[in-house]
Amino acid sequence: MEVKLKTTGTEQWYQTITFKLVTVGLLILILLIPLSMVKSVIREREQTDQQVETEIMEQWGGPQIISGPILHLPVYYYTQDKNGHIKKTKKWLHIMPDDLNTEGYIEPHKRHRGIYETVIFNSQLSINGNFDSLNKLTIDADEVDWNKGFISLAITDNRGIKGKVDFKINNQLFEPEAGLISTDLATSGMSVKYPIDPQLISEKINFNITIDISGAKAISFNPIGKKTNINLVSSWKDPSFNGSFLPTKSQISDKGFEANWTITHLNRNFPQYWIGTKHSINENQLGVELYVPVNHYQKSLRSAKYGILIICLTLLVFLFIELVKKKTIQLLQYMLVGLALVLFFSILTALSEFLGFAWAYLAASASIILMVTLYSYGVLKDKAQALWVAALLIVLYTFLFVLLQLNDFAFLAGNIGLFVALAFIMKASTKIKSTNSSQLN
């Protein structure tokens, strides 16, 4: 015997299941408008946070890139014009160090401005090594002015230089000057005039530099030595090693990190010395970023992206209750429940600015679950059904929180969750058919 849905002559088109489904679907689409407005507010708050970060960096110093020291010598070329006049052209010979060793301790701090915070750092660097004997150079120039040589240390942002800089060359202390005499390789930093005795070019030039540099977010180095060794230590427990080279050795714990890089001249794309601007030293940087795990704005925005899922599943539960349990739920009541679910993301963002994301999530979800549960009891007049709504919301918000904590497996976990949710919805939908098919033709 064929089973058919029973309809009565008094049933109007607006009382059908199809119309109810379409109406709830349109309501969900309408709720996308306030949800998108909440997302816009979150993005605005995040942009304000980034603006504050930029302002602090402008005052304290931004990400720092250290290059050097580098030895520079002026060289000259002579050409004769048609009138027999000699024209003298000056260029700079740039010599990279033979050995370059850097030891650094990075001390991180969190700087606050109102409710916003930025990670800054102070670093104590000790740079030592040597330049190989200059008599090994093969220079394609008419003249080398040994007396006008200088040694530079390029720094991205000079505002980060704190206190006195000890700049020793061959155990002799020199006073560095601000700026670079030659800007072929970098545009900012410090330099030391170092005249070279032509009779001593067979000797190595040793250097030892001690400097305190502050900055924000990241510190990087150009491995310009024939052999470069960099060792960094910090109490920051969430480092992100960036650049062209990962550390040769690294150790990360709750007490901080220690990382070591060992790079040779064979790992880069420029020679030990050249004239002019033939090569760039900025192609193979390495360093560390003081990584901040996904901040509360990013987590709030990610959670809002799942908002439509929570709204759909919750309203579907109300729809099934209405159809299966023969309860009457008005369109306005669907709308109020949906708005309460949208409000969760706004409350979450506001509270996270003061409580941190985890506690804000707990407070916001508990408030919305309690409100929707009490409202459900008032509408349905059924304690058991209201508890089912509460259980659903607890599961949804718990699943969303777990999903936000995942990084690599978030996509997989989300799809598994959607599969399980769809399976339950399909199972629940069979109740609608059996309920409306209680009478047979």
Automatic annotation (TrEMBL):
Record's keyword annotation contains Metal-binding: no
Signal peptide boundaries: none
Keywords (A to Z) from UniProt: Membrane, Transmembrane, Transmembrane helix
Transmembrane segments: 21-42, 306-324, 331-351, 357-379, 386-403, 409-426
InterPro entries named among the record's database cross-references: Uncharacterised_IM_CreD
Pfam short name (any one): CreD
Domain of life of the organism encoding this protein: Bacteria
Keyword Membrane: yes
Official protein name in the record: Cell envelope integrity protein CreD
